[in-house]
Amino acid sequence: MALTEHQVIDALRPVIDPELHLSIVDLDMVRRVEIDGGLVAVTVALTVPGCPLRDEITRRVTAALETLDGVREVSVELTAMTPDELNAVRAKLAARAGGGRDPEAWESSAHGNGHSHAQPLGHEEGRPNPFGAGSRTRVIGISSGKGGVGKSSVTVNLAVTLTRAGHDVGLLDADVYGFSVPGMLGVDIEPRVVDDKMLPAEAHGVRCISMGFFVEEDQPVIWRGPMLHKALEQFLVDVDWGDPEFLLIDMPPGTGDVALSMAQYLPTSEVYVVTTPQPAARRVAQRSAYMAKKINLPLRGVIENMSWLVAPDGSHQPIFGEGGGAQLASELGVPLLGQIPLDPALRVGGDEGRPICATDPESATAQAFSRVAEALVARGRSRFFHPDLTLG
Ligand code: ADP
Q1: Residues in the ligand 1 pocket, defined by CB under 6 Å
Q2: Which residue from 53, 96, 304, 350 has the highest number of Cβ atoms inside 10 Å of its Cβ?
Q3: What is the mean pLDDT of the chain?
């Protein structure tokens, strides 16, 4: 049976624009479809002519069309949208920014229901907080008591694992002591500003914003509380996150200012603590846990990292001791979501921007992340809604 234009459009429907995170068909980017036997030629209109993601769009379109029966060859031509067409895209983005939420919760938060933190943020244009009460997004803060326990590695691999499991995931790097997330995730194209909205960078399907994108490399920056608070506000409000299911936040070790801001801006955040197996690390992690509790961010679980090294004979070598994660979890009265092995391949993947969960999903380490991700999903959203919190 001859291929129809209708089939071609249907095959292109799942193709997502890598920057705008909507279907290229819904964005009216598909212009011309020509079918000549097994040859299919399509023209796709981009939002900007020099779009850095031209190759990626071509790859996605070609891959989608090659799955159709009877297609022998695909040719993709790229063109640019006219100003009117761009306006139509902006209208679609604006509609999406307001959609996808529980309208009643949104309404009550906008009018103040006794939870002042759930009201729109006090931004000049009065933009609403996309992660306020009523948002569908589960905001997951990943914390640790001290640096070097693998918090960023865990956050990045968890984000990739959740994405691979079909979830829609945003990742905010707020670890002001070292912005390692873009490097570990392999982000090589920085976020772009379209009109007054910033489009997050994307790698391995994870949308990512790092405060590190906005500071000079190797320049020491002292982030004081109010500055951090403002930066976090901007990254929540001025970035087109697109209503993800999960927003993972790589928090600075020790908690403190970022936790305070999260408590205010992200009233539904949940915090998970990464620790290593030795008792000393547990005590440090405990401090960060108590801090989270003090400002009423619900602490919901522990993840143990560097739990063991797998020896050539397959045995588990507990290089950093044993039992720290389970003990901390029991002291805090929360579950231990899982244990991640000490794996040289994980470190190499982080250094090269090729997270192990993306490059080797069958490995024992990636499987351990899958179990943590499953436990996180199964844990469900926190019912805990902390009382008003006023920051001076
Ligand atoms: P943190 O965010 O807690 O400071 P990082 O994620 O930056 O920690 O990790 C510190 C170093 O340890 C990095 O070089 C990272 O690749 C490495 N690392 C983290 N977790 C593991 C692991 N499970 N196996 C091997 N190396 C790891």
Answers
A1: 144, 147-153, 180, 305-306, 340, 342-343, 346-347, 350
A2: 304
A3: 82
